[in-house]
From TrEMBL:
Source organism per UniProt: Oceanobacillus locisalsi
Keywords: Membrane, Transmembrane, Transmembrane helix
Upper classification of the organism: Bacteria, Bacillati, Bacillota, Bacilli, Bacillales
InterPro entries linked: MFS_2 (IPR039672), MFS_trans_sf (IPR036259), Na/Gal_symport (IPR001927)
Stated name of the protein: MFS transporter
Protein's UniProt keywords contain Transmembrane helix: yes
Length: 474
């Protein structure tokens, strides 16, 4: 730690130029592509495996959990790799660009389980492909992509803008996937044939946008740890872990990421809810529109809203709105019109948190760098990504387990009451509880009052041992 804080390792980052809109849009395009792997798998893997391949929901849930927990650990090493990557192309950009086509291919393979394999063979195949996606190639791609928020700029408003734009593109992808997938699968012949043709299209929609982002955006806010001779020094993995895991704001951020993705059991259950509660799989399109369109519109205004009220206050206002929406959905869980109203209100409520999430991580990365002198732009996103992966892994497992415990009968048009209750729990009750906890945790994010002074000291090279130590206790 002394080496990180010594005067030999003084570093200065100049304030970066404001980003142009075309580069922000190019950045956002990457999240559009990533969701054709991430959201597609999260939304349709379980129903594909149960109703087409014939694997139980409980087994799929367990595979998801094991893979996502493993994924959480590989995230730790991925962040260090990015922080120690130095190429002409950049630190994060090459990882985004070169992993994209492999990620698209693996997504295609996951939804094309060979029919000739026996039951055990299919389970092994699914586990291996899913593990490669979640623990290796999606990890490498997503940690690098998320790191670009910090590497592209150190301007707070631009970071919130990047977060909003990426989630607008993300929601556009989510809207397209959840609205059109069932129509595409049935339109291309249904069964395995329908899934095969659909996933060819989705594999391309995954790879190409990510490659465009990885090639065209610019990294201009790179923190470097230097020696006396002014040569770049490799940052030890355990030093990075120490400065991250001993910072309270970083721990808070991991918890928020875990809860935010854990609450999204509604994504995995939505197709079941439409099919068995409303007796029409196409109702999923209505539920998806109600969830995504208000979010997309709201994210256009999120940067101004956050700038006006600050990150913590704007998030709190939004979460109160979200809590009201869940009360509506709890009362009217089988009324399509009023449930849709509840989803719309909830979509508006989660906008501030959605838009500010990446900015929070980048800010925390700055706080840690200022305090320790250790550059953590990649690692801070890798560990929060670990929270996301573990949260979403638990989310996927919980959906599968809930269906199994509820007695879900694959392919049956009539489900037992216990199965319907499991679906309602995953769509409404469990996310409701998570939102309440998220709001309580958000109250502890109180760094904004001293962040401007921290950023000013970073620009002046006052980091690590050279910072103003009584500026704030963080």
């Amino acid at each position: 730690m002394q080496a990180a804080q010594s005067e030999q390792n003084k570093t200065q980052i100049a304030k970066t130029q404001k980003l142009k809109m075309n580069e922000k849009l190019t950045f956002g395009l990457g999240d559009f592509g990533a969701n054709y792997s991430w959201t597609f798998i999260a939304s349709f893997l379980t129903i594909y495996m149960t109703d087409t391949v014939g694997i139980s929901a409980g087994i799929i849930g367990t595979i998801i959990l094991i893979s996502r927990v493993t994924d959480g650990f590989t995230d730790l090493f991925m962040g260090t790799l990015i922080d120690n990557t130095n190429t002409k192309m950049g630190k994060a950009k090459p990882w985004v660009f070169w992993t994209a086509p492999i990620l698209g291919l693996l997504t295609f393979l996951l939804f094309n389980v060979p029919g000739a394999l026996g039951q055990t063979g299919k389970i092994i195949y699914i586990f291996l492909i899913y593990l490669l996606i979640s623990a290796v190639f999606y990890t490498a791609n997503n940690v690098a992509y998320s790191s670009l928020t910090s590497l592209m700029t150190n301007d707070k408003n631009d970071r919130v803008s990047l977060g909003s734009i990426r989630f607008i593109f993300s929601q556009l992808a989510v809207l397209s996937i959840t609205t059109f997938t069932t129509f595409l699968v049935s339109g291309f012949g249904g069964g395995q044939q329908g899934w095969t043709i659909t996933t060819i299209i989705y594999a391309l929609l995954c790879a190409v946008p990510l490659m465009i982002t990885g090639w065209f955006v610019k990294e201009r806010n790179i923190a470097k740890r230097k020696t006396e001779e002014n040569t770049t020094q490799r940052v030890p993995f355990f030093l990075i872990m120490k400065v991250l895991l001993t910072n309270k704001y970083f721990i808070i951020t991991i918890i928020l990421y875990l809860l935010w993705y854990l609450r999204q059991t509604d994504n995995g259950i939505r197709v079941y809810y439409a099919t068995y509660v409303f007796n029409n799989a196409d109702v999923m399109a209505i539920l998806s529109l109600a969830t995504t369109v208000p979010t997309i519109i709201g994210l256009m205004y999120a940067p101004k809203f956050v700038k006006m009220f600050g990150i913590r206050k704007s998030i709190t206002i939004g979460l109160i709105i979200s809590i009201i929406s869940y009360l509506i959905m709890t009362v009217f869980s089988e009324n399509l019109t009023l449930l849709t109203v509840g989803l719309i209100v909830n979509a508006i409520g989660v906008v501030p948190f959605t838009g500010a999430l990446s900015a929070i991580v980048a800010d925390v990365g700055d706080l840690i760098y200022w305090k320790s002198g250790v550059p953590v732009q990649g690692s801070v996103f890798s560990l929060t990504s670990a929270g996301m992966k573990i949260g979403s892994g638990l989310q996927g497992a919980i959906v599968g387990w809930a269906l199994t415990v509820g007695g879900y009968i694959a392919g049956s048009s009539i489900q037992p009451d216990s199965s319907i209750l499991a679906m309602k729990s995953m769509q409404i009750y469990f996310p409701f509880a998570c939102i309440i906890i998220i709001m309580l945790v958000t109250f502890t994010l109180n760094y904004e009052k001293f962040l401007p002074s921290v950023k000013r000291e970073i620009e002046e090279g006052k980091v690590g041992e050279n910072r103003t130590k009584d500026l704030a206790k963080i």
